[in-house]
Amino acid sequence: MGRQFFVGGNFKMNGTVKSIKEILDNLNNAKLDSNTEVVVAPPSLYLLLAREHLRKGLEVAAQNIFDKPSGAFTGEISADQLKDSGITWTILGHSERRVILQEDDQFVASKTKAALDSGLGVILCCGESLEQREAGKTIEVVTRQLKAVADKVKDWSKVVVAYEPIWAIGTGKVATTEQAQEVHKAIREWLKKEVSDEAAEKTRILYGGSVTEKNCKELAKQADIDGFLVGGASLKPAFVDIINANE
Ligand SMILES: O=C(CO)COP(=O)(O)O
């Protein structure tokens, strides 16, 4: 399909100076598939450390931004500040922020626009709860989350979509290859209908949720799975095997 494979490591609120340096050293010294784009997202406190410590070619992402450029917003970080610090990506709309911190679709969309306007790449997360899946609402929920962004953002060339079913995150319960492929395909069809042919063809759609070195190869074979957003396993040496899943 010609889409470059993409693997993101979302460290979430994990790590210390010591352990993060160890994870980054492991990546720096590993033989990584040169056709795979690799981005790591440590907690914001460690973003600069990661940028300074990681070898060239490996990129750093924030786990969140605020949608204003600067000002009286205690505790927040802007896209411009990230750019200024050599951080080129941000994750947005992660379900942990949507659920625990009650971020709604509009806020996620507004942050996505702010990030893209500042020239950051965005890993835009979407995904349904178990309850929504069991009610047959998976595609409806995911496309509603994406539609809020499409209403504000026309150019998706720096957006990577991450489909992360909430019931698969941190649970060890990975979606089956069929379940993942079905939703990825639906997202691609939605992109074609609501954004553009080009967005449908070129946008990478990642799968996230209990991805490990054991299940990544099968998932990577699916036509519409263009990479992974990895939580727990990105903190371990086996993250390298996930990065190389598409070899
Ligand atoms: O939320 C995730 C990545 O953003 C997935 O987390 P796990 O890989 O730990 O299930």
UniProtKB/TrEMBL annotation:
Please describe the quaternary structure of this protein: Homodimer.
Give the similarity note. Belongs to the triosephosphate isomerase family.
Keyword Glycosyltransferase attached: no
* Gene3D superfamilies membership: Aldolase class I
List the GO cellular component terms.
cytosol
Q: Which reaction does it catalyse?
A: D-glyceraldehyde 3-phosphate = dihydroxyacetone phosphate
The entry's keywords: Gluconeogenesis, Glycolysis, Isomerase
What name does UniProt use for this protein? Answer: Triosephosphate isomerase
- CDD domains hit by this protein: TIM
Q: Name one Pfam family in it.
A: TIM
Provenance organism: Ophiobolus disseminans
User: What residue range is the signal peptide?
Assistant: none
EC number(s) for this protein?
5.3.1.1
Q: Which residues form a coiled coil?
A: none
Q: Name one GO biological process term.
A: gluconeogenesis
Q: Which molecular function GO terms apply here?
A: triose-phosphate isomerase activity
Pathway in which this enzyme or protein is active: Carbohydrate degradation; glycolysis; D-glyceraldehyde 3-phosphate from glycerone phosphate: step 1/1; Carbohydrate biosynthesis; gluconeogenesis
